[in-house]
Structure formats: structure tokens, C-alpha cells
């Protein structure tokens, strides 16, 4: 089901701030992939690359990941 789901039109143009977090060692969803997909469609998105981390930064680098999320939320809080 999710393999064929397409949410692009549902979220296009939303003013919601997005944080995209990837690990620099992720073999598939790296910063280049995100720049050509999600970031290309969402002007309010920002990308953060976690060094020495793979596909699961929340499990592989939890303190660093939490710091990144906390900083994003603090900057975007109204």
C-alpha cells in the first residue's frame, strides 16, 4: 500500500517547517536524494546531516539526534 502511495500533492505548498535528518553513511536516503526529492518540493524544509551515522540516526546517534531536534523545535517555536 505505501509503496504506491503518493502524498506529493497533499503536502505541496504547505508552510509547515520541516526538518530532514539523514546520516552521512546512509546508503540510500542520503542528502543528495533528499535534495532532489523532499527539499526540492518544500521551500520551508531544512536538511541536517549527522556525521558517522547510517539510516537510523535516532537509534545510532540518539544524543546528537535529540540535540538536532531540540534545536529545530526551539528555532521554530512561535
UniProtKB/TrEMBL annotation:
It comes from Paraburkholderia megapolitana. Gene3D superfamilies: alpha/beta hydrolase. Residues 8-66 form the AB hydrolase-1 domain. This is AB hydrolase-1 domain-containing protein. It holds the Pfam family Abhydrolase_6. InterPro entries: AB_hydrolase_1, AB_hydrolase_fold. It comes from the Bacteria.
